[in-house]
Write a structure and sequence with these properties.
Main location: plastid
Strand order of the largest sheet: 3-5-4
Strand content: 25-35%
CATH superfamily: Ribosomal protein L22/L17
Number of strands: 5
Largest sheet: 3 strands, antiparallel
Number of helices: 5
Subunit structure: Part of the 50S ribosomal subunit.
InterPro entries: Ribosomal_uL22, Ribosomal_uL22_bac/chlpt-type, Ribosomal_uL22_bac/org-type, Ribosomal_uL22_sf
Structural class: alpha+beta
Distance between the termini: 47 Å
GO molecular function, one term: structural constituent of ribosome
Oligomer: single chain
Shape: elongated
Number of domains: 1
Family: Belongs to the universal ribosomal protein uL22 family.
CATH architecture: Alpha-Beta Complex
CATH topology: Ribosomal Protein L22, Chain A
Radius of gyration: 22 Å
Helix content: 25-40%
């Protein structure tokens, strides 16, 4: 936990800053960004354990570097921040085009043809959801002490699975070539 100070009318107010997100960045991965996005769309919004299971069973070449990145982000979360791996959810995943590796392939009669290998960079952000539960518990406690009517977003039951709500709508990419 880090404490920061904010100057407010010649007095200082201390604000507690908590970081709940952990990043892992992989650069210059030798595959096209489109092929990596097809795998990334299947894991966005899922829990860490479910993501590892999905990536181990999918038969695509893009799964292995993404699996290593997710594992690295979880290791960063547990080592640097002390988070539990059961509370981690993939909150944000980005795939961007990176540089293109250009080579020459020798051909007949002393000629050469260019070969372009596309590369991509992948950013994975894991979020700890245990901090969100603590904030909701605090809000519930406030409303019970003050005797106010609870708003609907506090009284509703939580979803038990930690998946994104739109995860079944992104299967359209698998129909493409």
């Amino acid at each position: 936990m880090i404490y920061g100070s904010i100057r407010f009318r010649s007095t200082y107010m201390y604000v507690r800053i908590t970081y709940t997100e952990v990043y892992a960045l992989g650069q210059h991965i030798c595959m096209s960004a489109h092929k990596a996005r097809r795998v990334i769309d299947q894991i966005r919004g899922r829990s860490y354990e479910e993501t590892m299971m999905i990536l181990e069973l999918m038969p695509y070449r893009a799964c292995y570097p993404i699996l290593k990145l997710v594992y690295s982000a979880a290791a960063n979360a547990s080592h640097n921040m002390g988070f539990n791996e059961k509370n981690l959810v993939i909150s944000k995943v980005e795939v961007n085009k990176s540089t293109t590796v250009k080579k020459l392939k020798p051909r007949a009669r002393g000629r050469s043809y260019p070969i372009k290998r596309p590369t991509c960079s992948i950013t994975i952000v894991l979020k700890n959801i245990s901090f969100n539960e603590e904030e909701e518990e605090c809000k519930r406690y406030q409303y019970t002490i003050l005797g106010l009517n609870k708003p609907g977003w506090i009284t509703k039951e939580k979803y038990t699975d930690m998946t994104c709500y739109d995860m079944y709508n992104n299967g359209g990419l698998w129909d493409k070539k």
